[in-house]
């Protein structure tokens, strides 16, 4: 584990939890919060943002990545915490959906990191590398 992750791990999980409270999920009722940790210690959060045209809904991880990119970040992603549940009650640990894995890979690949993904459940934290969740990923190196 990187020193920064060891130092910021609890803050990262707490930030994801706080972010979940800002979810806009009136259709699914499933609230999700995500928090991204960067090499400089910064934490960027997001929450799922649904839409009346259901398929346009955005996941928490995707929102967080867009905010980070908009803030000028291009890489440096070392960890991601995600949690959620029906009505905002955290139950089983969740992992980012397929689309979010790809979106996270873009940000990570720009800095050459393989972030640790923390799926935060009520009773456990499941840790997985992004490269395990999305092996042989297509990314920026395929185009540049
Ligand atoms: N959701 C996320 O925000 N992140 C995930 O990793 C899984 C699913 C959201 C999408 C939708 O708003 C709700 O959870 C139910 O699928």
TrEMBL record:
<dbReference type="GO" id="GO:0004126">
    <property type="term" value="F:cytidine deaminase activity"/>
</dbReference>
<dbReference type="InterPro" id="IPR016193">
    <property type="entry name" value="Cytidine_deaminase-like"/>
</dbReference>
<keyword id="KW-0378">Hydrolase</keyword>
<dbReference type="InterPro" id="IPR002125">
    <property type="entry name" value="CMP_dCMP_dom"/>
</dbReference>
<dbReference type="GO" id="GO:0072527">
    <property type="term" value="P:pyrimidine-containing compound metabolic process"/>
</dbReference>
<comment type="similarity">
    <text>Belongs to the cytidine and deoxycytidylate deaminase family.</text>
</comment>
<feature type="domain" description="CMP/dCMP-type deaminase">
    <location>
        <begin position="7"/>
        <end position="141"/>
    </location>
</feature>
<dbReference type="InterPro" id="IPR050202">
    <property type="entry name" value="Cyt/Deoxycyt_deaminase"/>
</dbReference>
<dbReference type="Pfam" id="PF00383">
    <property type="entry name" value="dCMP_cyt_deam_1"/>
</dbReference>
<protein>
    <submittedName>
        <fullName>Cytidine deaminase</fullName>
        <ecNumber>3.5.4.5</ecNumber>
    </submittedName>
</protein>
<dbReference type="GO" id="GO:0055086">
    <property type="term" value="P:nucleobase-containing small molecule metabolic process"/>
</dbReference>
<dbReference type="GO" id="GO:0008270">
    <property type="term" value="F:zinc ion binding"/>
</dbReference>
<dbReference type="GO" id="GO:0005829">
    <property type="term" value="C:cytosol"/>
</dbReference>
């Amino acid at each position: 584990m990187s020193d920064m992750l060891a130092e910021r791990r609890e803050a990262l999980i707490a930030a994801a939890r706080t972010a979940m409270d800002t979810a806009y999920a009136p259709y699914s009722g499933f609230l999700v919060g995500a928090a991204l940790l960067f090499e400089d210690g910064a934490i960027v959060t997001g929450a799922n943002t649904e839409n009346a045209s259901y398929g346009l809904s955005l996941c928490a991880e995707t929102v967080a990545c867009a905010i980070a990119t908009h803030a000028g970040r291009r890489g440096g992603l070392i960890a991601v915490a995600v949690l959620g549940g029906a009505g905002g009650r955290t139950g089983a640990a969740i992992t980012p959906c397929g689309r979010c894995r790809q979106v996270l890979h873009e940000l990570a690949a720009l800095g050459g990191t393989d972030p640790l993904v923390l799926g935060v459940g009520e009773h456990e934290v499941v840790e997985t590398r992004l490269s395990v969740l999305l092996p042989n990923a297509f990314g920026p190196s395929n185009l540049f």
